[in-house]
Amino acid sequence: IKDHRYAEAMRVLQYELQRSPNSRAALSLLGYCYYNTQDFIMAAECYDKLTQLYPDHTDYKLHHAQSLYNAFMFPEAIAVMAQIDEPTMMPLVVKLDAAIKYREEDLNNARILVEQFESDDPDTEVNLACLDYKEGNYEKALQRFTNATNVHGYQSELAYALALCHYQMDEFQQALKYISEIIDRGVKDYPELGIGMVTEGMDVRSVGNTLLLHETALVEACNLKFAIEYRLKNVDAAAEALTDMPPRSEEELDPVTLHNQAMIHVDMNLADSFAKLQYLLSQNPFPPETFANLLLLYCKYEVSLRSLKLNIFLYMLPFYLKIDA
């Protein structure tokens, strides 16, 4: 685990659980490994069992709720949070509740919860910045993210947030500056992630979906670079942005990367691009651009819109009406 060799650790722990199904140590470590490999459903199962075996250990309930949140199982996460009554845990419960409200687009209540954070909590400014961004106030969000960077120092996730604000303000060069910094630091600090090796034609193995990969913001940065180059109609540069990211197998790809791959390969394999976009529509969540881009491609290639499912069609009805007009 210390060396981030989670797959090997999980094999050992799963064998241990076969011998001792209620082993607290094995369940706890296995839940930790699942969480760090972004397998939040399995992590939730481990922590759920731990809360049943050790109901007095409130930290297991919090880990259970956090796993459910990351698996986008918000009602289940809220139900688990309601069982936490330890006063020392309440600040973390409030933060998790605010994060759930944010993902559910309940921004007013999310802001109310964020304003309940401790006055000296360093997360407050970042959370308020995220709310400003979500509300379309990109300049204010940029200012808050800048303030947070001045307090915390360089963090790849904050650098990505700054790049995203500049992107939304159509300040592409400034956004690319932050993206380049994220990628350059990733190459230097994490050579094991294989950044750029696919672009160079090297045969590489998947690095998997780990918490480390998430914390580097490399995938997000490469996808944002793709978006910029794609909008600027620099198709080759956009394609290179996707191959520069750390290698993963197709089943490990996040929704945004899968969406971008579908868009860049549409001229080479139309059927595959359609299949990827339609698959994304069945996922929760899916990139908001997915349905709009699928409609545009249907129109471009004269595919019948009747093949779309009605509930998905109604979801994007206002956009469809614009196309129809």
From TrEMBL:
> Per its UniProt record, what InterPro entries does this chain match?
TPR-like_helical_dom_sf (IPR011990), TPR_2 (IPR013105), TPR_rpt (IPR019734), TT30 (IPR039941)
Gene3D superfamilies linked to this entry: Tetratricopeptide repeat domain
Recorded GO terms, molecular function?
A: intraciliary transport particle B binding
Q: Where in the cell is it found?
A: Cell projection, Cilium
Ranges of the TPR repeats in the UniProt entry: 24-57
Q: Do the record's keywords include ATP-binding?
A: no
**One of the protein's GO biological processes:** intraciliary transport
Pfam families xrefs: TPR_19, TPR_2
Q: Does the keyword Membrane apply?
A: no
Any one annotated GO CC term: intraciliary transport particle B
* UniProt keyword terms in alphabetical order: Cell projection, Cilium, Cilium biogenesis/degradation, Repeat, TPR repeat
Similarity annotation: Belongs to the TTC30/dfy-1/fleer family.
According to its UniProt entry, the function of this protein is described as: Required for polyglutamylation of axonemal tubulin. Plays a role in anterograde intraflagellar transport (IFT), the process by which cilia precursors are transported from the base of the cilium to the site of their incorporation at the tip.
This chain belongs to the protein called Tetratricopeptide repeat protein 30
Native species: Acrobeloides nanus
Q: What is the lineage of its organism?
A: Eukaryota, Metazoa, Ecdysozoa, Nematoda, Chromadorea
